[in-house]
Amino acid sequence: MRKRYTACPQGAKPVVAIPNGAPPATLVTRDVIVGTGAVADAGTLPRVHYFLKTWSNGKEVDASYADPFRFELGSGSVIAGFDQGVTGMRVGGRREIVIPPELGYGEQGAGASIQPNETLVFVVDLIEVGS
Known about the structure:
Layout: E1 5-6, E2 15-16, E3 28-33, E4 45-54, E5 60-63, E6 69-70, H1 80-86, E7 94-99, E8 120-130
Antiparallel strand pairs: 1-2, 3-7, 4-5, 4-6, 4-8, 7-8
């Protein structure tokens, strides 16, 4: 997959460009910055910053750079693609995660911002891993 972001330091809100063409059919993860700290594994409580755009129209849907997001990894509290995409990250890392509809919001979508069968593009910065 070719580069779709503007490089910036971990913790700074990224600029993400969606390429022309069809989205990938499977979950795609790519480490933009490889962290060196603790690993996010099932049962841990990662605290992250994230940025979300939709593939179809390239619009920003959500971002947590004003208020970091914490969740229990592997508990089902977030969409499956986000859970799978964050697993294995190390603190200090930044990862791009492209989530196909079946691992995102599927046929129902989510509100007015995420249409049915939408592919999601996240950039996630792992700030810390708690237990």
